[in-house]
């Protein structure tokens, strides 16, 4: 794809998300007002019952826009889901440091840091959950000082957030030991991403790598962990490298079936291609609390796997699944027709192609195709 085309795609994708709005939030914990940046998903007003994951960004005045851009681009290609993006302004002089204040001896938030911690947990989050349709999957992100601070939410017995994006964190006392202990003890699924760079601050980088070694030693299916060290990046430029990596790591299960997944996982199965498709979307709902119809392209991928492995009986099950999501379309009858055609039962194949002809077109399936296939089956019957 040439540069003008890439720019055109990016500009298009930017228009799909709602614009950033700024709310002034009155906080008793902070003793004043704090600006909150909010962007709602493009489809937020279309389906009043749909809920969306929440991504809360600290250092919102400079981290909000990079996160928004990555989400817009990923959603344009259907690689990332729509999310409710919220940023907290910490732009006043030394505000981010006051918000992250902790006791040097206990390593826990104190004074203005404790107030900011309570502001998020007891004021902002309840307000957001009451005001907006937020799914149970919640992410928090920060950079250096605020990245260290967000780990305090892991210290709670039942952490408020499910996923943590820690960009070149500056840790409080003993966090390189406390975080692994908490990640090992927490029973619910936790997603954790941290990054550094070869050009990062030495005092920060050493402790980040110590944490990485300890977390990698944890063997838990409920822990989704990723660590990046970027070569040629600085303490600041690593942010732009990290954001898409973190989001694509957390939302990997959301992505459509890729060429790699098709070749290395699906086609190599001896059977159970439709079951694989069901489990993929069940895992999406279970892990990220995102419920969505199975994509048409994913149906087509499983169709191709069935044909390649000549497992034609599975078209029956695929047709039942298609009827659940695309009942009024040609897809369910088409899968049945394809099964009977491949099994050389041309009479039944013709019946289902004719039935599909009367339904709504979908994807590359249209009335001309169904008519031509039914005529082809008629000739094979002679």
TrEMBL record:
<feature type="signal peptide">
    <location>
        <begin position="1"/>
        <end position="18"/>
    </location>
</feature>
<dbReference type="InterPro" id="IPR000801">
    <property type="entry name" value="Esterase-like"/>
</dbReference>
<dbReference type="InterPro" id="IPR050583">
    <property type="entry name" value="Mycobacterial_A85_antigen"/>
</dbReference>
<dbReference type="InterPro" id="IPR011990">
    <property type="entry name" value="TPR-like_helical_dom_sf"/>
</dbReference>
<dbReference type="Pfam" id="PF00756">
    <property type="entry name" value="Esterase"/>
</dbReference>
<keyword id="KW-0732">Signal</keyword>
<protein>
    <recommendedName>
        <fullName>Alpha/beta superfamily hydrolase</fullName>
    </recommendedName>
</protein>
<dbReference type="InterPro" id="IPR029058">
    <property type="entry name" value="AB_hydrolase_fold"/>
</dbReference>
């Amino acid at each position: 794809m040439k540069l003008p085309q890439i720019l055109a795609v990016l500009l298009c994708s930017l228009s799909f998300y709602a614009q950033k709005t700024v709310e002034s939030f009155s906080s008793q914990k902070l003793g004043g007002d704090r600006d909150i940046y909010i962007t709602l998903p493009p489809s937020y007003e279309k389906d009043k019952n749909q809920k969306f994951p929440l991504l809360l960004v600290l250092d919102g005045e400079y981290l909000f826009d990079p996160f928004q851009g990555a989400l817009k681009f990923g959603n344009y290609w259907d690689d990332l889901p729509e999310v409710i993006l919220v940023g907290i302004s910490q732009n006043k002089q030394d505000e981010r440091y006051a918000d992250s204040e902790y006791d040097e001896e206990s390593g826990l938030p104190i004074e203005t840091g404790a107030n900011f911690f309570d502001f998020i947990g007891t004021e902002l989050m309840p307000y957001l959950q009451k005001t907006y349709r937020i799914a149970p999957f919640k992410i928090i992100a920060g950079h250096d000082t605020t990245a260290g601070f967000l780990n305090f939410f892991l210290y709670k017995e039942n952490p408020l957030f499910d996923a943590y994006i820690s960009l070149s964190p500056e840790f409080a006392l003993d966090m390189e030991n406390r975080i692994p202990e908490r990640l090992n003890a927490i029973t619910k699924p936790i997603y954790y991403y941290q990054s550094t760079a070869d050009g990062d601050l030495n005092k920060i980088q050493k402790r980040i790598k110590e944490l990485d070694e300890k977390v990698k030693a944890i063997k838990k299916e409920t822990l989704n962990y990723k660590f990046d060290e970027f070569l040629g990046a600085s303490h600041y430029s690593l942010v732009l490298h990290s954001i898409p990596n973190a989001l694509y790591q957390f939302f990997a299960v959301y992505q459509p079936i890729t060429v790699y997944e098709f070749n290395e996982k699906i086609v190599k199965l001896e059977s159970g291609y439709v079951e694989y498709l069901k489990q993929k979307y069940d895992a999406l709902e279970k892990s990220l609390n995102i419920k969505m119809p199975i994509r048409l392209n994913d149906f087509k991928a499983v169709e191709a796997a069935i044909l390649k492995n000549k497992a034609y009986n599975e078209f029956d099950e695929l047709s039942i699944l298609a009827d659940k999501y695309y009942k009024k379309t040609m897809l369910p009858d088409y899968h049945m027709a394809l099964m009977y055609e491949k099994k050389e039962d041309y009479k039944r194949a013709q019946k289902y192609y004719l039935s599909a002809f009367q339904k709504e077109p979908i994807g590359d399936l249209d009335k001309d195709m169904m008519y031509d296939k039914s005529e082809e089956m008629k000739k094979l019957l002679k």
